[in-house]
């Protein structure tokens, strides 16, 4: 598969995710990876599709594979941390949020409810603007927001 075809298929996967057709996106992205296993973008979007399907272990595995292809894609660390938040594994979430920051990732936010942008948590801003002084407290804020959103 040539680069243009790979990019087209990844774009199709992104469109399927946007249309909330996560199963179809997952299958397409897995096919891309089977044919072109060094396609970092396919791993990232596969992780997103898996996360939306509630397949958190598969999502984490996909984000970790993206890091094997491109160790500089630090957003994958943040994505893994966010999955651990959803899994209620605070210690692991903190570990990966710290890895993200240690590797230069500074634009941290999570949209708790896409229909309500005021629910967005700017994790990095809470951490660095004096509202909190440690990752544990910030992650606690994030966990509280996720729990409140699920109610």
Automatic annotation (TrEMBL):
It comes from the Bacteria. This is Tetratricopeptide repeat protein. The keyword Protein transport does not apply. Keywords: Repeat, TPR repeat. Pfam families: TPR_11. PANTHER family: CELLULOSE SYNTHASE OPERON PROTEIN C (PTHR44943), TPR REPEAT-CONTAINING PROTEIN MJ0263 (PTHR44943:SF8). The keyword Repeat applies. TPR repeats lie at residues 40-73. It comes from Coprococcus catus.
């Amino acid at each position: 598969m040539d680069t243009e075809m790979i990019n087209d298929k990844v774009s199709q996967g992104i469109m399927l995710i946007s249309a909330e057709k996560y199963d179809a996106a997952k299958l397409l992205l897995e096919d891309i990876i089977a044919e072109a296993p060094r396609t970092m973008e396919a791993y990232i979007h596969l992780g997103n599709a898996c996360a939306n399907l509630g397949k958190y272990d598969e999502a984490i595995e996909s984000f970790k594979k993206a890091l094997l292809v491109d160790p500089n894609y630090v957003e994958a660390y943040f994505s893994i941390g966010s999955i651990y938040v959803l899994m209620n594994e605070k210690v692991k979430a903190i570990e990966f949020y710290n890895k993200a920051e240690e590797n230069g990732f500074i634009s941290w936010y999570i949209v708790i409810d896409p229909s309500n942008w005021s629910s967005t948590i700017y994790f990095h801003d809470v951490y660095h603007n004096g509202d909190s002084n440690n990752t544990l407290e910030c992650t606690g804020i994030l966990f509280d927001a996720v729990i409140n959103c699920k109610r």
